[in-house]
Amino acid sequence: MADRTLDMLFDTVRDLATAVYNLRQEVNAGFQRMQGEFENVNGELAQVKGELTQFKEELEQLKRELAQLKGEFQEMRSELRQMNERLDRIEKRLAKLEGESNHAKIRLFDVERELEEIKRLHL
């Protein structure tokens, strides 16, 4: 009976050793799968990091271009303001010349009328 108990004990130990071995195999396989997934995720993370770096560089470039455009816009705005001031001065000069032209036309008309009057009186 002791032999039988001892055989049962050895069988149980062998079954436990087999179960531990199988469990260890499953754990190792799971670890390898997780390590593969970790490497995949790590690769994707590196790719996203590279894309983020590229995006940051593009954003900085856009910021520089925007600053340049803003400067050019301010310059154009200033030039437009100066042109408007020049146009205002030209309009004032034209209005003055138009007034002088109208005055000259009236004087010419008066002179022509006086000349006609003088001619009529001398004839």
Describe this entry's structure for a reader:
The structure is a single chain. This protein is mainly α. The protein has one domain (1-89). The protein is 98% helix and 0% strand. The protein is rod-shaped. The mean pLDDT is 95.
Give a quick set of tags describing it.
about 120 residues; mainly alpha; single chain
How many individual helices? 1
The percentage of residues in β strands lies in under 5%
Helix content: over 70%
Give the biggest sheet. Answer: none
**Domain unit count:** 1
SS-derived structural category: mainly alpha
Order of helices and strands: H
Report the uncertain regions: none
Q: Which descriptor suits the 3D outline?
A: rod-shaped
Tell me the Rg in angstroms. Answer: 51 Å
Measure the end-to-end span.
174 Å
Q: What is the number of strand segments?
A: 0
How do you describe this structure in short?
By secondary structure, the protein is mostly helical. The protein has one helix at 2-122.
Topology of this protein?
Blueprint: H1 2-122
